[in-house]
Write a structure and sequence with these properties.
- With 254 residues, the chain is an all-alpha fold.
- It contains 10 helices and 2 strands, in the order αααααβααααβα.
- A two-stranded antiparallel ribbon has the order 1-2.
- Helix 3 (67-80) packs antiparallel against helix 4, helix 4 (89-111) packs antiparallel against helix 9 (199-225) and helix 7 (177-187) packs across helix 9.
- The longest helix is centred in the N-terminal third of the chain and has 27 residues, at 33-59.
- It is globular, with a radius of gyration of 18 Å.
C-alpha cells in the first residue's frame, strides 16, 4: 500500500492549491498583479514538485533530469505558437503534453535498465544532451531563448487550463492497484518480481506519467511568462524540485 504520509502530501498540496486559487477571488483593491503573478509561479512549481514526487516519493526513481520534460514542453509551445494571431490553447496544451510524454518514454526505455547511482547519472547525461540541443543550436533561439507571441490568456479560475482535477486524478491513480504496485517496487522490487509483476513496465509508465505532468508545468510556464530559455532545462531545476522531498541524490537507491 502507498503509505499514509504520501497521501497526506497530496492532500496537503490540494489544500494549498485551493487556498491560493481562492486568493484570486479577492477584490483587486486587496490583491495586485505582482501578487497574482507570484501565486501563479508558486502554483506552477508546486505542480512540478508534485510530478517529481510521483517518481521519487512513490517509486524511488531519483532523477536529476526531470526539468528536461518541463523545458521541452515549454519549447514546444514557443515553436507552435503563431506570431500574428492568438494561439489555440488546447492545441498547444495537447502538443506540449504529447511531446513531454514521448520524450519520457524514449529516455525511460533506456535509463530504467539501470539502478541506483547509475540511474541518476544516466538520466543526468541524457537530459544534459537535451539542454545542449536547445542551448547550442538555433532551433529555438539558442542561448538567448524564445518568445511566445500572442499567447493565450492564463487564468487560474478561467475555463480551466489548470484546476485541482489533475491532482485529484493523481491521488486516485496512486490509490489504485497501479499505485500500490509502485509502492511495492520502491520498497522491494525483487519481491514484486517474484510475485509476477513486470516491474520494468510499471516504472516506465510511472516515468512517462511524471514526464507528462512536468510537461503540463512547461505549458503553464510558457503561456504565463511568454518567454523560455535553456536554463529551465538545466539539472539544478530538478535539484530544486528534489529539495522538498528530503532526497540526497546518490544515496537513495532506485
Amino acid at each position: 500500500m502507498v503509505d499514509d504520509m504520501k497521501h497526506s502530501t497530496l492532500l496537503g498540496l490540494a489544500v494549498v492549491f485551493a487556498l491560493l486559487a481562492l486568493f484570486t477571488l479577492l477584490p483587486e483593491s486587496i490583491t495586485s498583479k505582482f501578487h497574482l503573478e507570484l501565486l501563479s509561479k508558486i502554483l506552477i512549481f508546486s505542480i512540478f514538485a508534485t510530478s517529481l514526487q510521483l517518481l521519487v516519493g512513490f517509486t524511488g526513481l531519483v532523477s536529476l533530469g526531470h526539468a528536461a520534460f518541463f523545458g521541452f514542453a515549454a519549447y514546444v509551445v514557443t515553436m507552435l505558437a503563431p506570431m500574428s494571431e492568438a494561439g489555440n490553447d488546447w492545441l498547444l496544451l495537447t502538443a506540449s503534453l504529447a511531446g513531454a510524454l514521448l520524450l519520457a518514454l524514449a529516455v525511460g526505455a533506456l535509463t530504467l535498465r539501470t539502478k541506483g547511482i547509475y540511474f541518476i547519472m544516466v538520466t543526468l547525461a541524457f537530459f544534459q544532451m537535451v539542454f545542449f540541443v536547445f542551448h547550442d543550436t538555433k532551433i529555438a533561439g539558442g542561448s538567448d531563448g524564445a518568445y511566445v507571441y500572442f499567447k493565450p490568456e492564463f487564468k487560474l479560475l478561467g475555463k480551466p487550463l489548470f484546476n485541482l482535477d489533475g491532482l485529484a486524478l493523481l491521488y486516485l491513480l496512486l490509490r489504485s492497484r497501479f499505485g500500490n504496485a509502485l509502492a511495492g517496487i520502491k520498497h522491494n522490487e525483487q519481491r514484486m518480481l517474484a510475485a509476477g509483476y513486470r516491474t520494468y513496465r510499471y516504472k516506465l509508465a510511472c516515468f512517462a506519467l511524471g514526464g507528462m505532468f512536468a510537461g503540463l508545468v512547461g505549458f503553464l510556464y510558457a503561456i504565463q511568462y511568454g518567454f523560455v530559455n535553456p536554463e529551465i532545462l538545466a539539472w539544478h531545476q530538478s535539484g530544486n524540485a528534489l529539495l522538498p522531498h528530503g532526497i540526497a541524490p546518490g544515496i537513495t537507491a532506485c
